[in-house]
Amino acid sequence: MKKILNLFKNPKVNMVIILSFLLFIYTTICAMSYAQNISSDIANSVFRLHVIANSDTSEDQNLKYKVRDSLLKYMNEICKNCSSKEEAILLVEKNKDNFKQIALEKIKSEGYSYDVNINIGNFEFPTKNYGDISLPAGYYDALRVEIGEAKGQNWWCVMFPPLCFVDISSGIVPEESKELLENNLTQEEFALVSDNSDTQIKFKFKLLEFFNNNGLITAKN
Fold first, then answer.
1. Which of 9, 33, 118, 207 is 20 to 30 A from 213, alpha carbon to alpha carbon?
2. What is the Cα–Cα distance from 100 to 77, expressed in whole angstroms?
3. How many whole angstroms separate alpha carbon 197 and alpha carbon 218?
């Protein structure tokens, strides 16, 4: 113990400790800045859908999926020619009442009388995988659909680029959707969400998850 204390009295040792600490702080700041920029760019390139069931009963969960399918069918009709997130959001805002009416009609046709609350805003999302595309946790612009008391489990997807129609059996995202996403991201950003084989890319993605999941950064606009 005495030898250790004597080491700390050595000016050279103290200098090494101070420099190591400063290097750690600098590296952490650089990593946070990198994660913040990447998260923001990815979030600014997608528009998501968030459907919340009335409750966690099997009936309410099944109803959630039926409402989702009706909304996605309509979204696909009006946004099939969209080439940017901004264009998709404008169309959804313009047709917001139609989205609510479609949800209400589906709920009524299934024998329920739940109300529906629809909002377009910036909401927190967990890390989600869509076939071979992975989006890190963070804040994303989204259409949020709350059914009834909205106390049930959530369902998330991406309305633009259209990743909601991923072939679940094969886990493959349509090439057109990938191209839209790639056109709105840098080469490195697209690699981060689409390449699961590169060790360095995996590490960077985990870095994004770590900072986002621990509340150290947000991707809010």
1. 118
2. 16
3. 26
